[in-house]
Amino acid sequence: MKRVGVFVCHCGSNIAGVVDVKKVAEAAKEFRDVVFATDYEYMCSDPGQELIRKAINEHQLNRVVVASCSPRLHEETFRRCCESAGLNPYLFEMANLREQVAWCHAKDKEAATAKAIELIRGAVAKVRRSAPLTPGVVPITKKALVIGGGIAGIQAALDIADAGYKVTLVEREPTIGGAMVKLDKTFPTLDCSA
Amino acid sequence: MVAAARHPNIELLTYSEVEDVSGYVGNFEVTIRKKARKVDATKCRGCGVCWEKCPTKVDSEFEQGLAKRKAIYIPFAQAVPAIPVIDQEHCLYFTKGRCGVCQKVCPAKAIDYEQQDEIIKDKFGAIIVATGFELFNWREVYGEYGYGKYPDVIDSMQFERLNVSSGPTGGKILRPSDGREPKTVVFIKCVGSRDEAKGKSYCSRACCMYTAKHAHQVLEKIPGAQVIVFYMDIRTPGKAYEEFLERTIHEGAIYVRGRVSKVFPEGDKLIVKGEDTLLGRPVEVAADLVVVVPAMVPSRGWDKLAKMLGLQTDKDGFFQEAHPKLRPVETFTAGVFLAGACQGPKDIPDTVAQASAAAAKAILLLSKDEMATEPMVASVDQSVCAGCGLCVEVCPYKAISLTTIAERVGGREITRQVATVNTGLCQGCGSCAVTCPSSAMNLKGFTNEQILAEVDAICL
Amino acid sequence: MSIAAEEKQWEPKIVAFCCHWCSYAAADLAGLSRLQYPPNVRIIRVPCSGRVNPQFVLRAFQRGADGVLVAG
Fold this sequence. Notes:
The complex is a heterotrimer.
Chain A: E1 4-9, H1 21-28, E2 34-40, H2 46-58, E3 63-68, H3 71-84, E4 92-96, H4 98-102, H5 109-128, E5 136-139, E6 143-147, H6 151-162, E7 166-170, E8 185-186, E9 191-192
Parallel strand pairs in A: 1-2, 1-3, 3-4, 6-7
Antiparallel strand pairs in A: 8-9
Chain B: H1 2-6, E1 10-13, E2 16-24, E3 27-34, H2 49-53, E4 57-59, E5 68-70, E6 72-73, E7 85-86, H3 92-95, H4 101-105, E8 118-124, E9 126-129, E10 133-135, H5 138-141, E11 153-155, H6 156-163, E12 184-191, H7 207-221, E13 226-231, H8 241-251, E14 254-257, E15 260-266, E16 269-276, E17 281-287, E18 289-294, E19 296-298, H9 302-309, E20 336-338, H10 348-366, E21 370-373, E22 378-380, H11 390-394, E23 400-409, E24 412-421, H12 431-435, E25 441-443, H13 448-459
Parallel strand pairs in B: 9-20, 11-18, 12-13, 12-18, 13-14
Antiparallel strand pairs in B: 2-3, 3-8, 4-5, 6-7, 10-19, 15-16, 16-17, 22-25, 23-24
Helix pairs in contact in B: 7-8
Chain C: H1 2-9, E1 14-19, H2 23-32, E2 41-46, H3 54-62, E3 67-71
Parallel strand pairs in C: 1-2, 1-3
């Protein structure tokens, strides 16, 4: 049984100044499997996140849609918020009402509101089909390979070695040194290159 | 150099090449071929008797052909390690099956003609690519400068060797043809750089400055010498660079804006014909020595390495960074970083800065014990997968391979090939899911079902 | 006359598949710069334009989209 919660953010007046957020939240309640929808001034703020956590618990939400700014900005924030409420962070979607609705359709409030509703409908439809995901864990071999024994390779190898890690420096010529070791003095200070 | 050789954390594998790389960030599996030096490094003391007695002389690569080396040699006196290598293409023992002098004279019994290449396999968490540059082969295309046939038309690296006190002339600037000190030296810049017709479209960045240094060295070492530098533009963006150029010009270097159209010998002089585009008139100089300043190009083998590591290159073969401004040392292969001129032509200060940046990125990675992998990756339904391998071809990250699975069908055990995703390598682009003809491949977090549902809902 | 009035009322529905790393970011930038454009376009975020299956495009047309934009 899927139980989706929709959270519409005002972003102060950034979204609410253009999009009729109350109407959007009401409309969202009609979408399939949406059992809870609300709006709030700043969803990313601490009280906003607390509101989401509370709703997840109170309404046994197992899918969350936040309609606010771009996921490029706050997707991580809300994923962590869901996770802290015991929900898998990948059972979460965002609808971008700020950058891609309110800010670029500021003069047509009606159309902006209609578009906001459609984007949320899309996000709800997508999140209904989301599955919980878990990141894999891979161990890290604490050793670096440096390919090329010129000044770049030598410098990088020394830095990594000085940090306490093992380094293998591979050079195809019989000696390290590369081009720099062939040089006489170097500009602009004319210090020697060896 | 010596610091790198002596560092307890650095293992030096010279005369060695990376042959194969598999695995992914944090867990690269690398095969390295340690080529046979034919000298036992554990016995050799670097005394030098072998190369003193070796009868075969070959042009020295290190000295840019300005001096000879032996068939058993170290590239230069301060080579690290100071262990010689036998050049099997020229050594009489390997070409004709005779001689063997080095083995006879070696007091440490280190010469081992039977020594074979050694294959080393090891695991690494991070890889830094620092394969550098080489000079554009101007001798092949610049007929107007004599295709490199005139002995006194040399390139910048050769000129550099003439200046080094341990070099073939002991640091004296002398003409290769007759060993005389040149009185008039002409430099021709941008040979192969900014020349789309014959060379490369880009500016090689370091040449304006090192040519200013070379001009200064001529004026410093040869009293009364005349230096003429033909240039297209002079580019000196760097701390104290413009001041250095100004100093060289004040010392007497003559900068002529214009390209050289022809160089040809006349008597013991080289006639350099060009144009001064600022004055709008032709120029002719009778020079003793001409130095061409070639473009920097990626060091040979870049294509092989790019394939091995899944790196992208630009049109000229320089490795592509992940973002030109925000991720300048990372590549699109997680865990592989770039340092130095392999990423693009650059001078020493920029190279060192970039190398330290790449090292910092590698250290950041190595400082963790384990890393989380992105869960939004491709996954295969192996029961549906037909093993066609289209996804393997299309994956830009080399994250998919075909593996053989065994299963029971109708009471009989059969084996078949199916696609397997390496979740460490997969970057979640989804190209495989689109290519898959049987929809066995899907992308977690952006599944076909999710996106279709979104399309449906939005089009309602 | 009536055709002209109809044309004015008709608004196309455009579905855009935008790559998270470039064109989706560009659409964000357009908003950030307050560039105004007609609201007819609906953006679907994909991780890469390589993720756009031709099937998605056909489905959009099937469901009544008048135009599909793939940007990456």
